[in-house]
Structures are given as C-alpha cells and as structure tokens.
Amino acid sequence: MGDGVTLRFLGGVGTVTGSKYLVTTRGGRFLLDCGLFQGLKALRLRNWEPFPFDAAGVSVVVLSHAHIDHSGALPLLARQGFRGAIHCTAGTQSLLGVMLRDAAHLQEEEARFANRHGYSKHRPALPLYTVEDAEAALRLSRPHRYGEPVAIAPDITVIFRRAGHILGSASVELSLGGRRLVFSGDLGRWNRPILRDPELVEDADVLLLESTYGDRVHAQNAAEILAEVVRDAAARGGALIVPAFAVGRVQELIWTLRRLEDEGKIPSLPVFLDSPMAIDVTEIYCRHPEEHDLDMQALMDARRCPLCCRQYQLVRTVQESKALNGREGAMIIIAGSGMLTGGRVLQHLKRRLHDERTTVLLPGFQAEGTRGRALQEGARELRIHGQLVPVRARVLTLDGLSAHADREEIFRWLAGFRRSPRRVYVVHGEPAASESLAAAVRSRLGWTVEVPREGQIVEL
Description:
CATH class of the largest domain: Alpha Beta
CATH superfamily of the largest domain: Ribonuclease Z/Hydroxyacylglutathione hydrolase-like
Helix content: 25-40%
Structural class: alpha/beta
Number of strands: 22
Strand order of the largest sheet: 6-5-4-3-2-1-22
C-alpha cells in the first residue's frame, strides 16, 4: 500500500519446516514464528547459518504454537541478541518450557554421543544451541488468552484464535495500522478428541495459509485401521513401535487406544510411553481445561485419567528405556521423535527393525529427508547412529490421526471469511501440496493466490 509495510518469507516456504515470516513496519520489525528447519540435510544446515536479519533489531515474536518447526529457533534468536517479548497463548507458553529445554538437551546429548563414538565429521561436534540458550528464550515469553486483543507495538495488535492443532495452537490475526494480516498457523481438525475445534476467522486483507495436507484427504476410519494394526501386531507376537510426536499425536493416540480397549476392539497389550517429554506434555494437557472439548472435560470431571491405557507404563529414565530391549512378546512402544530425526525411538528401531515380527506405525506426516520418510518410501536399510540397520519390519502409515487439517478441512476454515482476502499466500507445505491447494482455492473461491518463493518480499 506504499507505506513501507512488508512481509518477507524466510522459512515454511517450499517445505513444512522452518516457519519464519518477517514483518517490517515504520515502527519496527517482528517475526511470525521462529522455527527450526528439519528433514533434508540442505535444510538442516540452514539452522547453523546466521539469521538474514539483525536479531537484536527484532521488536517482538508472535508465535502460533510450540512445535519445534515453529518455535525451535527461538534460543538461537535470543543468543544472537533478541531481547523483545515472545507473544503466545498460555498453552503454548506451558509447552515451550518442555519443548525448548528438551530440544536443547537432545542436541547436547547427541553432540556428546557423537564425540564419544567418533561418527561426526566435526571435531568436536557441537550442539546447535544449549539449555542455557533455551532458558534465555523462555524468559521472554508472554502468555495471552484466546480472543484477547493485545497491543504488541504502536498501532499493532494481535488476537489469537483457536487452531485446534495442538494445545495452545492459534491462528494469528494482526492489525497493522488499518489492514489485517492473518496467519492460519497449523490448522487442526474438527470433531477430534481432547481439544476444541478450530475457530473461524472472518476477515483478512492478506492471508498466510498452511498447506501441509493441501493435496489430500485423510482416511475417515483411522480408529478402525489402528485397531487392525494392533490386532495384527498382537498376532505376530512382536513389538508395535510408534514414533509419535510428543505434543498432540501421543495424546490422541493414547486416547484412541484406550477407547478401542474399552470397546473390546483390541487386546489389552502392555503400552510403554518412552518419552519423558511426552509424559510431561500429557500432564500439561490435563492442566489446561480451557482447551478441552466436552468429552475430555467429562472424563476429567469424573476423575478418570483420559490419557492412559489399561497396561500403561511410563518410561522416564534411560535405564528403563534400555530395559525394553530385552523384552519379548507383543507390546506397544510409543517414543519420539515423530519423524525419526532423533530421540529414544532410534534405539528401539536399531534393536528391532531387523525382526519380521516388528511393526512400525508412522502416524502422520514425514518430511522429505527424514528417516521416517525413508521408511515410508520403502527403504531396505536405515542409518542409525552411524550404522546401517536392515529393515525387515512391517512399516505402515496412518494419516488419519494427523493433527493437520486436510484439504477439505482447510476449505471448511476458509468458509468462515465474510469477504475474500486481497491476497492469499500458500505456505508451510511441500511444493506439490502448496501448488495443489493454491490451484484449488483459485478454482473454488476465485481468490488471488500465490505460492511465494524463499526470501521473497511483498508489500502489505
């Protein structure tokens, strides 16, 4: 509009990771999200590069939710001089304390492991950032309620709307001196357990629209498919390994398993939750009643834990995790990370991938370049901790438990707008998904849509 308000795409373009959008106004600069890149090595290497802007010159960060691809670079931002406020929902603030500390701890542990075993090309191997860096970022977080207008700078306000993706997730409405920029964030789904449905947004001049599943529709019978997988794993007499995301996916998976047990659709197997972070996150979910849907509220009010199975064991220590290696028979092991980029699930896969009795269930999106994507595409061997491990296990994908809206659910959310935005930028998707969604929005709604380029600057 000719007054110098611009938007620069610095991540979450051509990929589902590294969500990062820089808004520049006369009064300063601020970031929408500050996520880490994941997946392909070329993307991961970008995490080690300096930000393409002065971190100390950023006034504030507005955070859509706590997933690492949206929040994981905050410790780097703090280390490079950012001292402003990080605005988010209360649920996101609670999760950040777990997510950022865990990410930093894992990076420190992996650096120590690499140095001890000598498989890193770097001497010495260093963590991307430390727990101290994470703590510096956490001290800057400022929580807000959904629907509450918050002044974050002169003539700039933000409102968070429920996105239904994970605890605390939000679509972001920014009022910028007379115009409205809306960022969908990661949209969730309707009629899912635990969390309330996404809230609609009525008005935008410019819309940033996520497209993770913009080219497909989820399976509608996910629970039935999961039941069949569990029954088959029990018949095989081996482990069912689920590399689940600690935030959102673990909680819905456990909810669904317990419901299937109660309905007699699956045998009651030992279920091991081998993720200290997921254990902590599950407790946080129970502490935020403002996020709960009616079924979750009813179970909490009845003082029945809605997020546990009948034979349920929490695995916190490394020793307890290693002890699972010697366990035989049918069981379910749920461990992070969801795309096999790190975490305890790698130890279980290294121990059991060669066994034909083993089943690996990938319950959601697997980014290009990750071990999860390699397994999904039929890899015959997987490199874990410098070793090639043969894959003889049965590998399945269950997209129906995804916390991301599919194409039709995205259109359900878009139907809330009372008028068409002047421009729509389709982001946070691999190229095929983004282009497919952009074409569908043009065709169905007649809106002006663009898939932006990395580094592109547009006027708002």
